[in-house]
Design goal:
This protein is an alpha/beta fold. The strands form four sheets. The protein has a six-stranded parallel beta sheet, sandwiched between helices. The chain has two domains: about 190 residues, 3-Layer(aba) Sandwich (Rossmann fold); about 170 residues, 3-Layer(aba) Sandwich (Rossmann fold). The protein contains twelve helices and 14 strands. Helix 4 links the parallel strand 4 and strand 5. Bound molecules: beta-D-glucopyranose (BGC).
Length: about 375
C-alpha cells in the first residue's frame, strides 16, 4: 500500500502549508520553513561548486511535459551558471542507466532523475552518492534505494483524486442519470507514478462501483488489468479495441473512461469512435495541446495542469540551495515511501481543467494561452 488514510489527511495539510506558505504545524511533521532534505549521506552539509555539472536524466518523450522540461532545464541551469547535461533515455532502461553512469564519471554534483523504471536505478544512483552527488527524483519517485535525497513532483495521488472527481462530475453533466458504464485505463507499471494516479482515482470511483452506480462492463478493475505498457498510445488503443468488441457490442453504451493522461485519452477516444459509439466522458493529464483543443471543443472532458515551468523552477531552486550550502526545501515527509525509506518531498498542487475553467487556467501559459474560441 503506497498510501493510507493518514496520507490523505497529510495531503490536506500539505495543501494548507503550500497555499498559505505559513508555518502550520501538525503532529509528526515540521513547519515548512524548517523542512528540508539533508542532502548528503550521514547528514553532513553539501555545498556544490560554482559552475558545477548538473545531470538531468529524463525518460522517453511519452508526453509533452518531458520535452518542455528538457528545454527548461537546459536554459534555466545554464542561466544560473551551471553546466547542464540533459538527456532522454529514449531506448529504455539500459540507456538511462548508462547515461547516469556517464554523468557520475563527468563529476555531476547533482543528478536529477525522471526514471523510466523507478526500481532499476539503485546501482547507478548508489555510485552517484558514493561519488558525493546529490540525487533528486524529478516527477517520478525512485524506488527501493537509499540513494535518493529528495523528491520534487506534483502530488500524484491528488492527480488521481481530481481525475476520479472529474469523471463523476462529467458523467452527471453529460450522460444524465446513472448507472454509468465505464472503463479504466492506468499508466505504465514500471513508472512509480502510475499506482498513486490509479489509487487516487479509485479512492473516488471504488465506492461508486461498489454501490452499482458505476459499472466496469469489461470487468477489468485491477491496476494490472488496466496498465498500459510504456505509456504507449498504441497499447491503450489495442486494449480498448478488444474491450469495445468484447463488451460493447449491440446497444451497450460506454459512458465514461478513466484515462491517466492525455495521450492515452486521445488513443481511447479513437478506439471508441472507430467502434461507432458516442464520445464518452474521459479524463486526462498534462494539458497537451491537442487535448486542450479537444476540451475546448467539448470532446475530452478534463485534463490536469501540472505547469512544467513550476516543477523545473522548484528543482533549480533546490540546486541553488545546495550551491548556497543550504538544504533542499521540502514540504512533505510522510507520503512517499520508496520501499526502503520515506523520501522527503516537495509536492506541488495539480489543477483540474475542464471546458469551464480552461481559459482562466491557461491565461498565463505561453504554450497554451490565451485561449480563443
Ligand atoms: C507523468 C505524467 C505523464 C506520464 C507519461 C508520468 O510519470 O507524471 O505527467 O503523463 O509520465 O509521460
Amino acid at each position: 500500500m503506497s498510501r493510507n488514510m493518514k496520507g490523505i489527511a497529510a495531503l490536506a495539510a500539505v495543501g494548507a502549508i503550500v497555499l498559505a506558505g505559513c508555518s502550520t504545524d501538525r503532529e509528526g511533521t515540521e513547519t515548512e520553513e524548517s523542512m528540508s532534505a539533508t542532502a548528503a549521506a550521514g547528514g553532513s552539509e553539501v555545498c556544490i561548486e560554482e559552475g558545477a555539472t548538473i545531470g538531468v536524466a529524463l525518460p522517453q518523450k511519452t508526453s509533452e511535459n518531458w520535452v518542455l522540461a528538457e528545454e527548461l532545464f537546459n536554459d534555466g541551469l545554464t542561466e544560473a551558471g551551471y553546466q547542464p547535461i540533459v538527456q532522454f533515455g529514449n531506448s529504455g532502461v539500459t540507456e538511462q542507466q548508462n547515461q547516469i553512469d556517464a554523468m557520475v564519471e563527468q563529476d555531476a554534483q547533482v543528478i536529477v532523475v525522471g526514471a523510466i523504471d523507478g526500481s532499476q536505478l539503485g546501482t547507478q544512483l548508489e555510485s552517484a552518492k558514493d561519488g558525493g552527488a546529490t540525487v533528486i527524483a524529478y516527477d517520478r519517485l525512485v524506488k527501493n534505494t537509499e540513494a535518493v535525497d529528495a523528491y520534487i513532483a506534483f502530488d500524484n495521488y491528488q492527480v488521481g483524486v481530481l481525475q476520479g472527481d472529474a469523471l463523476l462530475q462529467g458523467l452527471g453533466e453529460r450522460k444524465g442519470e446513472g448507472p454509468y458504464n465505464i472503463e479504466l485505463i492506468a499508466g505504465s507499471a514500471d513508472d512509480a507514478n502510475s499506482i498513486p494516479f490509479f489509487e487516487g482515482a479509485m479512492s473516488v470511483l471504488q465506492p461508486e462501483i461498489d454501490s452499482g452506480n458505476l459499472v466496469v462492463v469489461s470487468g477489468q478493475t485491477t491496476f494490472e488489468q488496466a496498465a498500459t505498457d510504456g505509456w504507449q498510445a498504441e497499447n491503450a488503443q489495442t486494449r480498448m479495441d478488444t474491450i469495445m468488441s468484447g463488451s460493447y457490442s449491440g446497444d451497450t453504451e460506454l459512458h465514461g473512461v478513466l484515462s491517466p493522461n492525455d495521450t492515452l485519452a486521445r488513443a481511447a477516444l479513437t478506439s471508441v469512435d472507430q467502434a461507432g459509439k458516442d464520445t464518452p466522458v474521459i479524463t486526462g493529464q498534462d494539458s497537451e495541446v491537442e487535448s486542450v483543443k479537444s476540451i475546448v471543443a467539448g470532446e475530452q472532458y478534463s485534463t490536469i495542469y501540472k505547469d512544467t515551468r513550476e516543477l523545473v523552477a522548484q528543482t533549480i531552486d533546490s540546486v541553488n540551495a545546495l550551491a548556497a550550502c543550504g538544504e533542499i526545501p521540502i514540504n512533505d515527509t510522510e507520503q512517499y515511501d520508496n520501499g526502503v525509506k520515506i523520501v522527503p518531498a516537495y509536492l506541488l498542487e495539480p489543477t483540474i481543467v475542464t471546458q469551464e475553467n480552461a481559459a482562466e487556467v491557461y491565461a498565463n501559459d505561453p504554450t497554451l494561452g490565451p485561449l480563443t474560441e
